[in-house]
């Protein structure tokens, strides 16, 4: 997988909602779309076929754009034009969804604002017969008020991969608790190798898993902040300890989404997604192990962030029925394309349980281990968690982890923003 270099535009992993919320998609903003790539209506080489525009962000994995074009070309019931968007996909999508010139079909992650602003249409009718073949979390993350608005395309679990030989040499067992992780990272740090790489921002990507490991969640089932407990504050404080111990790698040429730091021996452990497994296996062979984010303590539970991308139909599309038919064909009926998309361009878990169970590339080694960890400990995003909430949560984490601020005070500040958003959304 090519390196992801931080830049002015949002990359794929920037949009993976590290700790929840689609940061780039401001659901209630008003913006104008420009030339959005929707094909002109009628005629063309397809005669009287409906024209559909399908939008993707620019993936980092080689071959993904060609695959998307291949799928579109194979569809015979409409003329499907693929728009592959480099740079700030989120901003372009935010404008496009407010315009009749935007996409008919697009990938994103669901935010409740998309539903309240009538930007997406419900897909319960095409999901009805296959709903039981999806993991509950992958349905929940795309459901608002009992209606399903999107179909998962891929599942991207994020975990900690480690060099077995380095832990063995130091006599360290794979960490099971957060204290174990802190101790192991410190012990594994030398003048040439750091204990762990969690991102150049000191590990904001782990803010969700740290909370889950304490037994908390961002929002409760009755739409209240769920991160204000003493145990959550304790978990956030331990992320600061990991940073303060100078056991984490900072200033890496590539960020946590790229496996270079682990592959090149700069660290003994790295927080990263399963998408990088093929590259890590090529570089490290069997010297690769995996653990979930460790539990806070004996009363906690390990955690895996189960991110991913979802396909939606725009409510602004002039051809909603045709768009739904295409989405059903590609992401529900064409299982060969679904398996190709998940497994031939980096490793991802196919959202369909039946496909994941028979995917040969996921049946052994760390890939199989990661699939099991995701099934046992996976957490998906709550669509009620808005971008504004996410910004407040990340600000809280930054102040706690990098500045050593008092967790309880920072949590209280973040809760004010979250409560205001919840009042706006739910009254």
TrEMBL record:
Keyword terms of this UniProt record: Signal, Sugar transport, Transport
Classification via Gene3D superfamilies: Periplasmic binding protein-like II
SUPFAM superfamilies, sorted: Periplasmic binding protein-like II
Pfam families recorded: SBP_bac_1
GO MF term list: maltose binding
Listed GO CC annotations: ATP-binding cassette (ABC) transporter complex, substrate-binding subunit-containing
One biological process term in Gene Ontology: maltose transport
Transmembrane segment boundaries: none
Family designation: Belongs to the bacterial solute-binding protein 1 family.
PANTHER family per record: MALTOSE-BINDING PERIPLASMIC PROTEIN (PTHR30061), MALTOSE_MALTODEXTRIN-BINDING PERIPLASMIC PROTEIN (PTHR30061:SF50)
Protein name: Multiple sugar transport system substrate-binding protein
